[in-house]
Amino acid sequence: MQSLRALLQFTTILPLGKPADYECFAKRSWLYPIAGYVTGGIAALPGLIAWYLGFENSSIIAALTLALAVFISGGNHFDGLLDFGDGLMAHGSREKRIRAMTDRTTGAGALALGIMVVLISYAALSSMTVLQIAFAVFIAEIFGKLSMAFSSALGKPFHDGIQKYIYDRSKKRFCLYAVLLTLPLFLLPGKMYVGAGLAAALVTFLCLHFLARKLFGGTNGDVTGAGNEITRMAVLLVVAVILTSA
Predict the structure, then answer these.
(1) Is residue 115 in some structural domain?
(2) Looking at residue 76, what is its pLDDT?
(3) For residue range 55-104, what is the model confidence (pLDDT) as tens digits?
(4) Which of 53, 120, 210, 228 is 20 to 30 A from 129, alpha carbon to alpha carbon?
(5) What does each C-alpha distance from 238 to 1, 14, 200 come to in angstroms?
(6) Residue at 22 is within a domain
(7) Using CA of residue 16, residue 22, residue 27, residue 32, what is the dihedral sign?
(8) Radius of gyration of the chain from Cα atoms?
C-alpha cells in the first residue's frame, strides 16, 4: 500500500495524507499503469456523465476530458512535455539541447510541441461520441503510464535527477510486469482498439527512447513525463482513426 500511495502522490494531486516513502514506489516502478487506471477513470467521468444524461456535444466533452486528464496529474507530465519540446527544437550540440531542456524558461519549442499535442489529442477526442471519449481516454491514460514504466526501466539517465533515482532501482523485467497490468483492458468491449492502443504505445515509446538517446544521450524526468503526454496523444489518434474509418 505504501508503494501505491507513493505512486499516486507522485502522479496525481489526489489528497492522500502525509507523503509516503518515495523509495517504496521507485523500487516498484512497474506499478505505473495502476496510476493510469486512476487518472483514466477520473478523466473518463465527463464522457460517462454526458452519456448518462444524453448530452451529445463531443467538442465540449473532449475539451473537459483533456483538461481533467492534465489537471489530475498536477500538470507534472505536461511540464515535462514542454521542457522536452525546448530540447527537441533547440539547435546545436547535445549540451545545448540539454541546457535548453533543463533550464527554467519556456521557449518556442515548448509552446510548439505543447500546442501540437493538445490540438491532436483534442481533434482525436472530438471526433468520437461521448461514450467513446470515455473509453479512449481511459485506455490512453493507462498506456501513457505504461510508457513511463518502460522509460523508468530502460531509459538510461544522462545526469543525476529523478530519472536516475528510479532507473537505479528498476529492473528490465519491470517492463513485462507493467504490460501484465494492462491486460485487464482486453476484458473490455473493443479489444481491437485496446490492441491498437497497446501497439501505438509501444511504437511511441521506442521512437522517444531512441530519439532521446540520439539528441540527449539518454533520458531524464522530462523525457519520461513527455512520454506520458505523447503516448496518450498517439493512442487517442489511433483509436479515433480506427473508429472513424469503420
Answers:
(1) yes
(2) 92
(3) 999 999 999 999 999 999 999 999 999 999 999 999 888 999 999 999 88
(4) 228
(5) 34, 29, 7
(6) no
(7) positive
(8) 17
Give domain status of residue 11, yes or no.
no
**Assign residue 92 a region: left if phi > 0, alpha if psi is -120 to 50, beta otherwise?**
left
Residue identified by cell 468520437 is: 128
pLDDT at 3: 87
Q: Cell numbers for 134, please give them.
A: 470515455
146 in Cβ contact with 182 (< 8 Å): yes
Query: Do the beta carbons of residue 118 and residue 87 sit within 8 Å?
Result: no
> Which residue is it, cell 507493467?
178
Please tell me the distance from the alpha carbon of residue 244 to that of residue 246, in angstroms, as a whole number: 6
How confident is the model over 99-143, as pLDDT tens digits? 999 988 888 999 999 999 999 999 999 999 999 999 999 999 999
The model scores a pTM over 0.90: yes
Domain housing 72? 29-245
Q: What's the total number of domains in the chain?
A: 1
225/168 Cα distance (integer angstroms): 18
